[in-house]
Amino acid sequence: MEWESVSDEEKTMWGDQLKNATGLYNNEEENWFKVDWEQVPELVEQRKVFLKMGKAFVHVREQLTIVVCEFTRQLEAGLAGCPITG
């Protein structure tokens, strides 16, 4: 999975936007991840992320959503390439 941690500088720079977008930003000690926005369409739809330059800033509490979205994407890709036997 391709996600990266949000740096302290980014947290400081985008702190107000992170709080406005998610309501979760309290201080620099909180963990955030950056992923391509296409990887978390459910969070984008629910407006639970901050979007900037094609990246979605995702709070650590939404980490499970990232994992589930990636698993679903890989499962669908795998099933599309496999013939159904029965």
Describe this structure in words.
The chain has a four-stranded antiparallel sheet with strand order 1-2-4-3. It is an alpha+beta fold. The N and C termini lie far apart (32 Å). It has helices spanning 8-22, 41-45, 63-81, and strands at 4-5, 32-36, 50-52, 55-59. 20% of the residues are buried. The longest helix has 19 residues, at 63-81.
Keywords:
4 strands; 4-stranded antiparallel β-sheet; alpha+beta; 86 residues
Describe the structure concisely.
Helix content is 45%, strand content 17%. It is built from three helices and four strands; from the N terminus they run E-H-E-H-E-E-H.
Please give the share of residues in helix.
40-55%
Number of helices: 3
Strand elements, count:
4
Report Rg: 15 Å
Shape: elongated
What's the average pLDDT? 82
The CA-CA distance between the termini, in Å, is 32 Å
Low-confidence stretches: none
| β-sheet strand percentage | 15-25%
Report the order of strands and helices.
Answer: EHEHEEH
Largest sheet: 4 strands, antiparallel
Major β-sheet strand ordering: 1-2-4-3
